[in-house]
Amino acid sequence: MKYSVILLISILFVGCKSDKKDYIRCDEVRTILSFPEEIELKNPSVVPVDLTGCVDIIQADSLMICKKEDGEYFWEIYSLNTMKSLGEYIRKGHGRNEFEWAPSSENAYYKGDTLYCDILKSSSGKLYACNLTATVQNRKLSLSEKFGCSAYGEMCNVVELGDSSYFCVKCHDMGSFQRSVISANGGERVLERGNLNKMKADELNVLSAFRIVSAAHKKVAEGMLRFPQINLYSLDSDKNMTLSLESELYSMSSVENQSKSSRKKYFGAMQSSVDWFGALYYGIPFKDIYEGSDQGSSILFFGWDGTPVLKAHLPYIATSFFVYDKKLYVFTNCGEKESLMIYDCPSVLSK
Q1: What is the pTM of this model?
Q2: In whole angstroms, what separates CA 336 from the centre of its chain?
Q3: Is 220 within 8 Å of 212 (Cβ atoms)?
Q4: What's the per-residue H, E or C state across 121-169?
């Protein structure tokens, strides 16, 4: 079912009515209250794979990585073409090529004909390259150290930009996040985009965000966990904007003053292509997500210039998603059991 929607975008140059220092924002703010196309995703096919214990899914070309918290390994890899398991990897432990905690900041890419996935080991502050091609062929984890970033601080995100530099987000100054680009030779360029680096919170999670990085566009999109906004900024120019899904931005104090049980979760997992980026959107209290909610969720798609493209409604709480071979895959672990659904890819995304 499609809805006829009038696209409504306003660009706010004046900002907010109250003290700007109480709002996390980029230099430009765009208010987006509707999308040019809205659809309801219905009648999926359910992948007949037992995903019990899977907490999230990562796509790496034709491979699907299921992240697990229980058991001996953090990863189980599947072929998207056959949906057969290709083995479990990244053993839990303190030994060589073992991880104490689940790896993070995963980023899959090709170098030549070889498929890799970079992963961050938070305990050591090191970025590793997992050779996925060799790993699944030999049924043995192929891992090599790539970049030691612990000297720059406690890293949350590290993504290689393809030119011997890395986009990094680190915990900073007791209550804030600092975004920067670090070159392989050790130089660091702090990215001052609006007041994103300057905002501080008593509880750091208030400023948490999901991020997706486009090395091709040299841009970052970050959907905020506790604010209905996406911050979209360039890595090589001063261009930056906040996309607000409400008529006014939410102030820091209004969120911090809420009880934890009443705080809402807004954005979740993000994905991208050369033409678009997408983000899961909830807009409901955290407790409703964990206790089960029939309000559903949606996936919001934008062009890399910030233009809204598509809003896709889901009748359940989704955990993550990706597009592969003209199909939209949606994973959820917020129901009776973990499930992976497949939908026909909306035409606007497969052009």
Answers
A1: 0.92
A2: 24
A3: yes
A4: ECCCCEEEEEEHHHHHHHCCCCEEEEEECHHHCEEEEEEECCCCEEEEE
